[in-house]
Amino acid sequence: MNLASFFRGNLFGKIIKGFPYPDKICRYCNKKCTLVDAIHVTESPEVYKALYICMNDKCEAFDEPARKAYAKVYYSSEEAYQKLELHRIWFDRKKLD
Predict the structure, then answer these.
(1) Which of 1, 14, 42, 50 sits a CA distance of 20 to 30 A from 93?
(2) What is the strand order of the sheet 44-53 is part of?
(3) Which residue, among 64, 74, 66, 63, has the nearest Cα to 33 in the 3D structure?
(4) What is the pTM of this model?
(5) What is the rounded distance in angstroms from the CA atom of residue 74 to the CA atom of residue 21?
(6) CA-to-CA distance for 61 and 49, rounded, in angstroms?
(7) How far is it, in rounded angstroms, from Cα 93 to Cα 66?
(8) Using one digit for the tens of pLDDT, what is the confidence trace for 48-78?
(9) Are 7 and 87 in contact (CB under 8 A)?
(10) Which domain holds residue 37?
(11) In a domain, 95, yes or no
């Protein structure tokens, strides 16, 4: 059995209000990145994968026409990596506007 099919019904994708997500810093401009989405394991929400984006339009990695910016994928643990590495996190900037 592959992990993607096993965890299909046991995941939920959303940022949990009040959850202690760590802050992440952009390696190019040293500004705080914005947490844009996360995937949690239903039975263990502390096992998660999160996506952070640098929203600083002055960052050297930012390119509006090319729709590029510094992005950081964070896994809460080795277990999170093993369970969630194959699951994609989709980011829609319109959600943040």
Answers:
(1) 42
(2) 11-13, 34-41, 44-53, 71-75
(3) 74
(4) 0.80
(5) 10
(6) 22
(7) 14
(8) 999 999 999 899 998 877 878 899 999 999 9
(9) yes
(10) 3-89
(11) no
DSSP structure class, residue 46: E
Residue with structure tokens 């929203």?
55
Identity of the amino acid at 74: Y
Q: Cα–Cα–Cα angle for 54, 49, 4, nearest 5°?
A: 130
Tokens, residue 9: 């019904």
**How far is it, in rounded angstroms, from Cα 56 to Cα 26?**
9
User: Measuring CA to CA, how many Å separate 49 from each of 62, 84, 91?
Assistant: 23, 7, 13
Which amino acid does the sequence have at 94?
A: K
Burial of 1 (0-12, 13-18, 19+ CB in 10 A): exposed
Spell out the residues 6+ positions from residue 41 whose beta carbon is closer than 8 angstroms to its own: 7, 10, 11, 47, 48, 80, 83, 84
> Count of domains in the chain?
1
| pLDDT score, position 60 | 92
Q: Angle 29-34-40 (CA atoms, 0-180°, nearest 5)?
A: 135
Please report whether residue 24 resides in a domain.
yes
**74 part of a folded domain:** yes
94 pLDDT band, cuts 50/70/90, is low
